[in-house]
Design goal:
7-stranded mixed β-sheet; 14 helices; Aspartate Aminotransferase, domain 1; binds pyridoxal-5'-phosphate
């Protein structure tokens, strides 16, 4: 029999959202009359923008002609999209990115999960806590996480950087130097964004300590305030120490269509065992050309349409729509006496559970008493305990309805289960 990778056996039970789905299904069976409002999973609900649909149709029709047919494309992505990204996402912010440093993919999750393949098994990984689970789990699979402490909810080999109300959800620099630092800004799940000065501290730290920053900017389009960097490359020195991940999922509704990209500047380097510095870009290129045959042509044409003037307007409308929900949720929760964070530069609202309740108890209360589904903060890491995430990706109607239910439940600052 084949021997399995033992590291997979260390992964705790089921996935957070599977647990939630399970509980919601059980509730539905017991209470078929309750209309459930889902403000839990981070999937979008609005359809694809018309420009994207038009580009898809056109690209599909091209496939019916000998001249237009495309078979295998470049593993790194087509030049038309890589150029549109450099021009559309970076040049307007004063950042010059070589299209050759951009690698197109079928979404950020795969890139974020795969990138750790380039690091030695002994590399020390740091994550902010709470955190998007992919960073941790992919390093567990690679044998880099040590052992799991059930009680603490943490891995012995991973450096956790707590983000709580006490530090304004801004991670402190690690006490002990890690090799690789995952930063997600604007953050899922806390909804926090970092100012230029705060992010520059991380870049400076990474340069001084020879660390690599894996910067997840999947929610960049949701930044509303001035003074918040949209790309880590807006900061001095970042090109030497940072790789940036982006996604078409949340701005343009590509969660089902699938497209993302990673920027690996020529200048980002890591060390080999004998101390030589090695550029990461050729290694990522080697990895992708070996294991990946490219994002579909029609999808890349659809992504290109996002950068047309009309496409930009449509994406902006979608993002504005969700951010209206974020404002509705923020004010609804605040009026109900809850402590609320995020939702200003991100589609996520992070709230402190009332009355010192733990995250899963609050999940049960919201589901059983109000028919609202959210995500328990502890599912994102130990520092998420006592917090709860709601998302702005629902419809205006459902979001408003959920807030009415919360308002009718009374003032939560004095709330006790009963
Ligand atoms: N990064 C973060 C922080 C996310 O929350 C998500 C999706 O929820 C992703 C990446 C994945 O994006 P994609 O749909 O491009 O795989």
């Amino acid at each position: 029999m084949a021997r399995i990778n033992e590291e997979y056996l260390k992964l705790p039970g089921s996935y957070l959202f599977a647990d939630i789905a399970h509980k919601v299904e059980a509730f539905k069976r017991a209470h078929p009359e309750t209309e459930i409002i889902r403000l839990g999973i981070g999937d979008v609900t609005r359809p694809l923008p018309p420009s994207v649909i038009a580009a898809l149709h056109k690209a599909v029709d091209e496939q019916a002609t000998p001249e237009g047919f495309r078979g295998y494309g470049p593993e790194q992505g087509y030049a038309f999209l890589r150029e549109a990204i450099a021009e559309g996402d970076f040049a307007p912010r004063g950042v010059e990115i070589d299209p050759a440093d951009i690698f197109i993919s079928d979404g950020a999750k795969g890139d974020l999960g795969n990138f750790q393949e380039l690091f030695g098994r002994e590399s020390v990984i740091a994550v902010t806590d709470p955190v998007y689970p992919v960073y941790v789990d992919s390093n567990v699979m690679a044998g880099r996480a040590g052992t799991f402490d059930e009680k603490a909810g943490s891995w012995s080999g991973i450096v956790y950087l707590p983000c709580t109300a006490e530090n304004g959800f801004i991670p402190s620099l690690p006490a002990k130097r890690p090799d690789v630092i995952y930063l997600c800004l604007p953050n899922n799940p806390t909804g926090t964004a970092l100012s230029r000065a705060d992010l520059q501290r991380w870049v400076d730290y990474a340069r001084a300590n020879e660390c690599l920053i894996l910067f997840d900017a999947a929610y960049e389009a949701y930044i509303r305030e001035e003074g918040i960097p949209h790309s880590i490359y807006e900061l001095e020195g970042a090109r030497e120490v940072a790789v940036e991940f982006r996604s078409f999922s949340k701005p343009a509704g590509f969660t089902g269509l699938r497209c993302g990209y990673v920027v690996v500047p020529e200048t980002v380097r890591a060390r080999s065992a004998e101390g030589r510095t090695v550029a990461l870009k050729p290694l990522w290129n080697r990895r992708q050309t070996t294991k990946y045959n490219g994002c579909p042509y029609i999808v890349q044409r659809a992504a290109e349409a996002v950068y047309t003037p009309q496409g930009r307007r449509e994406v902006r409308e979608n993002v504005d729509y969700y951010m209206e929900n974020a404002a509705t949720i923020r004010s609804g929760l605040q009026e109900a006496g809850l402590e609320v964070y995020g939702g200003v530069n991100a589609p996520y609202i992070w709230l402190k559970t009332p009355g010192g309740m733990d995250s899963w108890t609050f999940f049960e209360v919201l589901l059983h008493e109000l028919g609202i589904v959210g995500t328990p903060g502890v599912g994102f890491g130990p520092s998420g305990e006592g917090y709860f995430r709601l998302t702005a990706f629902g419809s205006h109607e459902n979001t408003a309805k959920a807030m009415r239910r919360i308002a009718e439940a009374g003032h939560w600052s004095t709330w006790k289960k009963g």
